[in-house]
Amino acid sequence: EIVLTQSPATLSLSPGERATLSCRASQSVSSYLAWYQQKPGQAPRLLIYDASNRATGIPARFSGSGSGTDFTLTISSLEPEDFAVYYCQQRSNWCSFGQGTKLEIK
Amino acid sequence: QVQLQESGPGLVKPSQTLSLTCTVSGGSISSGGYYWSWIRQHPGKGLEWIGYIYYSGSTYYNPSLKSRVTISVDTSKNQFSLKLSSVTAADTAVYYCARGIQLWFVYWGQGTLVTVSS
């Protein structure tokens, strides 16, 4: 089983700031990593797949990078609607999710 | 636009079988290339993938749940289903159905809370 560890658990920032979220895999997942955003009471929304490809309709301020075991989701300039929980997911060895990073307003 | 909708009992007794159905609209469940999946989220916690049924009918389950899980499809109704046997309080969660392409999940149901309690 591949374990995904996200850091930090909570990130407190202000609108307009840059957010950097990390996801580390217990073994290489190549580029088979995705990022999701989840708001309270809603299903997750796919943001990034294959480590760096934005899903349809996702704003350009969201970007993903990394390969192997270390991955980053960057939000270049936070908008009020970006404050949510973010999950990474791998599909290299079936499927598993990280435990999430909560992005909260400072 | 593809839409998914979960349905089933919101309360299940311990040791019984949890049964949920996902109804797909806006697209055929027989369309090639999709992984029809179940994912759950324990209250206040992260996401746990339960398993999928591929459009061809093949299935794969999370090894930690494999002995208790069955996912099946009814193409005539454009539905797929989840059965989880011998449930305990640890199975209390919001259950989502989702459509995956290459196991990336774009389309999700809104989720249904299932509580295991006597």
Structure, described:
The complex is a heterodimer of chains A (106) and B (118). Chain A is mostly beta strands and 106 residues long. Helices cover 0% and strands 50% of the residues of chain A. Chain A contains no helices and eleven strands. Chain A has strands spanning 4-7, 10-13, 19-25, 33-38, 45-49, 53-54, 62-67, 70-75, 85-90, 96-97, 101-105. In chain A, strands 2, 4, 5, 6, 9, 10 and 11 form a seven-stranded mixed beta sheet that branches. A four-stranded antiparallel beta sheet of chain A has the order 1-3-8-7, with no helix packed on it. In chain A, strand 7 and strand 8 form a beta hairpin. The radius of gyration of chain A is 13 Å and the shape is globular. The model of chain A has no long low-confidence stretch (mean pLDDT 97). Chain B has 118 residues and is mostly beta strands. Helices cover 0% and strands 55% of the residues of chain B. Chain B contains no helices and eleven strands. In chain B, strands 2, 4, 5, 6, 9, 10 and 11 form a seven-stranded mixed beta sheet that branches. In chain B, strands 1-3-8-7 form a four-stranded antiparallel beta sheet, with no helix packed on it. The termini of chain B are far apart. The mean pLDDT of chain B is 95. The interface between A and B is medium-sized, with 21 and 22 residues.
Describe the protein's topology:
The complex is a heterodimer of chains A (106) and B (118).
Chain A: E1 4-7, E2 10-13, E3 19-25, E4 33-38, E5 45-49, E6 53-54, E7 62-67, E8 70-75, E9 85-90, E10 96-97, E11 101-105
Chain B: E1 3-7, E2 11-12, E3 18-25, E4 34-41, E5 47-54, E6 59-61, E7 69-74, E8 79-84, E9 93-101, E10 104-108, E11 112-116
Parallel strand pairs in B: 2-11
Antiparallel strand pairs in B: 1-3, 3-8, 4-5, 4-9, 5-6, 7-8, 9-10, 9-11
